[in-house]
Design a protein that fits this description.
Length: 747
């Protein structure tokens, strides 16, 4: 009984127990279901931010939204490529005006208590993103955020396309970090990209700047190895610059840091690369960029990585690349014999030009001497310091005897890694060295046979001298980068020891090209050169052809007129090429030659089709008259002064001797060989019948007082004060007695 009663009690208790358990299980299942439904609803829902522009004028919308991910369990994105993301995410849906192409910027720069990462998507997020790189943009560090010490703040930037109505942004923490942040949204109508003031400055000798760049496409066929933090190859600045090719001109070379991917996480490498070869912001818009990553995301790297990168670059140049190449090293270390030796033995001695930043300094006890940085302290490397808009040294720029040249380096606009249309304004000698690297790329593209030995003196000698207001002493070179287009026009090899200077006009004329017309224009050119007291050996019309492509701004032709493209050639010995070149450039800018042609040759110069450029006896072409090793133009100013003084002394001694002889002997009757008028002599010279003793087009003369006389007459003409300075292969160069000899640029 008891046993039976006990059994019944047990049965009843067990049933009650099961009943309770069933209720608890249902509660647990319901709770899990609600949590799953709630969590899924959260994941599927992004907060909408209305950024719809009106499309009228240049309107702009900015909004700030506070987020706190400390207790956030949302996960909208779990994985992007090799990167994993934890819970604690916020999602925003950006509503846009689909008919307006706009620049969208999302940032945590204003405030963040944790290391943020921003992910921008074209489609609504899923936990594992499988989109192509074109569909997803990620940034985990924007070093330009002010006050971001202690936390890594981020920015993503995107330019919309037509009919794009929604974008999605996920805010998460790097490596699971959580905290509070202000997320700033900005959208405005896309505007054409403006060039930096630096690009505006380097294509002209003197101020004021003209707010434009005259540089057309250049650098084609040249590979530029950018040793830095990596490069964003999808940035619009690296797109092909013509319709015949597609894709990016920036490629990923190799990474030498623990972060094996070549993505640029600081923007520094992208910024300098676009100054070198950006299609709008760069100096050499046709050059190709190869990213060599040696800096981590903290903007630091190991010297061993840099040494290994240098070895790889040479190997890559020899095995994988076609055409010319150069290396730009905006990164630098304290003075290192090992690094300098590696750059010299591996790159310089293998004819690879190297451009390096002179370095920045900010602390009072930090050295400002550019000789204490590597590799810029190495002879053979082009070491670059930074100048500002006031034509002074940038306050942060190192300087000294190891600096070779200055270039703009303050407030420089260029591309950035936070988006494919993103830009930033950054200071540094890195930016200055990028401008110089672009100039080297342009020169190599035109002259692929040039190398590290002659590239450096060419860039330095073509620079603008003496325009900077430096407070750095005489050891610091006062040279500012100068670069200009070299037209793709036919040229002729000059004789050894000469340069040919070419320039071109588009003319409106009542006559078409002919032998007589060309001869008349050539005569006008020679008279103009003489009037301007420019030394030259030959001056002529090199080519003349009817123009079928009138330049913008030309006047409408009458029925009895022709539009002509005329290219002129002026030959000059290389010692004096700088003098003649600069005078031609200056007087063309003042339109003095154009006016003379209009008056004397009955033509109207509509536009300048080619500013002066120079060709040497090796058919190397330059945008200014250079001084290169192995040419006679390396003669110093002192040497020329010595030659002039010696010549004057010898001439005076000869006159005294002749006077003595003349006094003691009765002179015989002599035929006067100076009977021809200047006009008659010039006509004979034009017709090729000159009795000067030299081939007519090869004569070199310089005006003194009256009209020029042939070289054969000047020594016997008592009314003309000429003195022989030099004889180059039988061609005399004459200068006024009592006047200073032509000054050569000192470097």
């Amino acid at each position: 009984m008891a046993a039976g009663g006990c059994g019944k009690f047990v049965d009843v208790g067990y049933e009650r127990f099961l009943g309770r358990m069933k209720k608890q299980l249902w509660c647990v299942c319901l709770a899990f279901a609600l949590l799953w439904v709630f969590g899924d609803a959260q994941n599927a829902s992004c907060q909408t931010v209305d950024l719809t522009l009106s499309g009228v004028g240049n309107d702009e919308i900015s909004k700030d939204i506070e987020v706190d991910t400390v207790n956030n369990v949302n996960k909208f994105v779990e994985k992007v490529g090799s990167l994993d993301f934890a819970v604690g995410q916020e999602c925003f849906q950006l509503k846009l005006n689909a008919s307006v192409v706009a620049d969208v910027v999302v940032s945590t720069c204003k405030r963040s208590s944790f290391d943020t990462t921003l992910i921008l998507l074209k489609e609504a997020p899923t936990e594992t993103q499988e989109q192509l790189p074109d569909d997803i943009f990620l940034n985990r560090f924007d070093p330009t955020c002010e006050g971001s010490e202690g936390t890594m703040r981020s920015t993503v930037e995107y330019r919309t396309v037509e009919n794009e109505e929604f974008l999605y942004v996920v805010v998460t923490g790097w490596e699971g970090a959580r905290g509070a942040a202000t997320v700033s949204f900005n959208v405005k109508k896309a505007e054409p990209l403006q060039i930096s003031w630096g690009l505006d400055r380097i294509d002209q000798r003197n101020l004021p700047r003209d707010n434009m760049s005259s540089l057309s496409r250049g650098g084609d066929g040249v590979f530029v190895y950018v040793v830095d933090s990596g490069v964003n190859p999808t940035h619009s600045e690296f797109l092909a610059t013509d319709s015949t090719t597609s894709g990016s001109r920036a490629s990923e070379g190799k990474s030498f840091v623990a972060e094996s991917d070549l993505s640029d996480c600081t923007g520094h490498g992208t910024h300098v690369a676009a100054l070198i070869a950006g299609r709008t912001l760069g100096v050499a818009q046709g050059a190709s960029i190869i990213a060599v990553k040696v800096l981590r995301c903290d903007n630091r790297g190991e010297k061993t990585a840099l040494l290994a990168a240098i070895d790889w670059i040479l190997e890559d140049i020899k095995e994988a690349r076609k055409g010319a190449a150069l290396v730009v090293m905006p990164v630098l270390s304290e003075f290192s014999e090992a690094l300098n030796a590696k750059v010299n033995e591996t790159l310089i001695q293998n004819d690879v030009p190297v451009v390096a930043a002179a370095g920045n300094f900010s602390e009072p006890d930090e050295s400002s001497d550019s000789c204490l940085s590597s590799p810029g302290s190495l002879a053979g490397v082009i070491s670059v310091s930074a100048s500002n808009t006031l034509e002074r040294r940038a306050v942060f720029s190192k300087y000294g005897s190891c600096t070779d040249i200055y270039a703009p380096g303050v407030g420089i606009l260029s591309a950035f890694h936070t988006g494919d249309y993103a830009t930033r304004v950054i200071d540094g000698t890195s930016q200055a060295s990028s401008f110089v690297a672009g100039a080297v790329a342009r020169l190599l593209s035109t002259n692929p046979r040039m190398n590290a030995t002659n590239i450096r003196p060419a860039i330095l000698s073509m620079s603008t001298k003496g325009v900077l207001d430096l407070d750095t002493g005489s050891s610091d070179p006062n040279r500012l980068l100068y670069v200009r287009d070299i037209p793709n026009f036919p040229v002729e090899r000059p004789p050894e020891g000469w340069y040919h200077i070419y320039f071109g006009f588009q003319l409106r004329s009542p006559r078409n090209c002919s032998v007589d017309f060309n001869a008349e224009l050539g005569s006008t050119l020679r008279r103009w050169l003489i009037d301007q007291e420019m030394p030259f050996s030959r001056a002529r019309v090199f080519s003349c052809a009817p123009s079928f492509n009138p330049q913008p701004g030309t006047s409408e032709l009458r029925q009895d007129e022709f539009m002509l493209d005329v290219q002129f050639e002026v030959g000059v010995v290389d010692k004096l090429s700088s003098v003649t070149f600069e005078k031609i450039s200056d007087t063309m800018e003042s339109e003095d030659l154009q006016e003379k042609m209009s008056v004397e040759s009955d033509v109207v110069v509509e536009v300048v089709t080619a500013l002066p450029w120079v060709v040497d006896a090796r058919l190397l072409q330059f945008w200014a008259a250079p001084v290169l090793p192995g040419t006679t133009s390396t003669t110093s100013v002192g040497s020329i002064v010595g030659i002039v003084l010696a010549s004057m002394t010898a001439f005076i001694a000869l006159l005294l001797l002749l006077l003595l002889v003349f006094r003691w002997t009765k002179p015989a009757e002599r035929e006067d060989t100076i009977g021809k008028s200047d006009k008659e002599q010039l006509l004979l010279e034009e017709s090729g019948q000159s009795d000067s003793g030299f081939p007519p087009p090869m004569e070199m003369f310089h005006r003194s007082g009256g009209d020029p006389r042939p070289a054969s007459e000047n020594l016997n003409d008592g009314n003309t004060e000429f003195d022989v300075v030099s004889l180059e292969g039988g061609e005399g160069m004459f200068h006024n007695v009592g006047k200073s000899p032509p000054k050569l640029d000192a470097f």
